[in-house]
Amino acid sequence: MARVKKTRGDRAIAWIEEHCLIPEGRHVGQPFKLRPWQKEVIRGIYNSPTRRVVISFGRKNGKTALSAVLTLLHLCGPEARPNSQLFSAAQSLEQAAILFALAAKIVRMSPSLREYVGIRDTAKQLFCSELGTLYRALSAEASTAYGFSPVFVVHDELGQVVGPRSELYEALETAAGAQDEPLSIVISTQAPNDAALLSVLIDDAKTGADPRVKLFLYTASPDVDPFGDEAMKAANPALGDFLNPVEVRDQAEGARRMPAREAAYRNLVLNQRVNMHNPLISRTVWERNGDEPSPEALDECQTWIGLDLSARNDLTAAVAVARDADGIWHVDCRFWMPEIGLHDRAHRDRVPYDVWADQGFIELTPGASVDYGFVAAWLAEYCATHNVVAVKFDRWRMDVLKAELSRIGAELPLEPFGQGFKDMTPAIDVMESSLVAGSVRHGGNPVLSMCAANAIAIRDSAGNRKLDKVKSTGRIDGLVAMAMAIGSAAQTGSELEMQPFLVIQ
Length: 505
Prior knowledge:
The protein has 18 helices and 17 strands. It is α/β, with parallel strands linked by helices. It folds into three domains: 170 residues, P-loop containing nucleotide triphosphate hydrolases (Rossmann fold, 3-Layer(aba) Sandwich); 50 residues, no CATH class; 211 residues, Nucleotidyltransferase, domain 5 (2-Layer Sandwich), CATH 3.30.420.240. The strands form three sheets. Strands 3-4-5-2-6-7-1-8 form an eight-stranded mixed beta sheet, sandwiched between helices. Strands 9, 10, 11, 12, 13, 14 and 15 form a seven-stranded mixed beta sheet that branches. The chain has a two-stranded antiparallel ribbon with strand order 16-17. Helix 3 packs across helix 4 and helix 8 packs antiparallel against helix 9. The radius of gyration is 27 Å and the shape is elongated. It starts with 7 loop residues before the first helix and ends in a 10-residue tail after the last helix.
């Protein structure tokens, strides 16, 4: 009978199971027996050309152990290349030390590995002198990554990176370009929002545009009960094996009883893109309202505008809303930023302002600060072509905008809108209830979506709420403007005993 030839993935699996021992836990010291889902991942990596693989599942599913044995596979196993450099990259020194420590434990426990692999605990390095291979753990100190030429990199917990850019990630990925067949493994629980680097990589992998990019994503569908077994099993391949199902169910019940814990549970256990800081509007609710607004409703119905000028070198937002006869809010938004310093702000905030500007979602004004002349011109034109009832504004820097409006001879229905609990509470209530009811059409504008994902409301002792820019996780100007516009429209409607919003004939 002909002998079946082992694939590259099969050889990797056989080597791990022969030479690696479980470094900790209740099965410590036992042979490293790979589970079927782990074998699927390994075969997926090695049985066809792979440049990058993204592996994402809930916490406590053996992420670090899998990373450690794959690192050893390239350090001294069948995937090792003589005189090659290997790295694991993490966002903190503590996280970087965890993967190194686990790999070092495996080496110390294995009779076959400890003969060939040296350990430098202080430097967090492993080396195989016979092959000339060297592994080193790095944290997010980007300067330490330049000058290297890695053939293998593990990006550990990349979901912790805020925004779409990481200097350490980019330094290692560009450094790998000198190798013929470099391999990067991204292994992490999901990031909280779409703009994060890990989310960008996952979404790119989903397109299948590059067949050398592989994705193994274990996540609970938003359509299933988040507290049920189906959701837990979907995101946790080790559930019922080395992940205790009783503990996971306890976490689910705790999140069910205490809503403040639900966001963290969804992100860390169900591996969903959910902001753990409990934003005012959940991602699911926001996406449910992502249909395109009706141009006819915006052109023909009464319209209210909310205006948040913010600082002159940051994001300025204007959001117009119109409510049709069916009670649906239609949202039209504009954003401005200064052209000079755009890339620096994108890097600082870790948000792709430059990309959004190229796509037309942000209008750039000349100079290093927002030219309010552009804002004034847009407001004047919009009010001239729409039935604008009021332009609600935060008083911050409004004197500068009024001067620009006066210069072009524009008289607009400007009305101040307080940012304290008294004025913002009813506005937030109406906006939130409308979103929950699915009666908003915001069109999925990425800048407005970013503001919604970042926004956090704080309460006073009486339970009133307002949006807080200090507590929030990034720019929220667009959502502040939207709340002012919807709150103003609802208040006007209430004063008119909620008569149908007028339509221009």
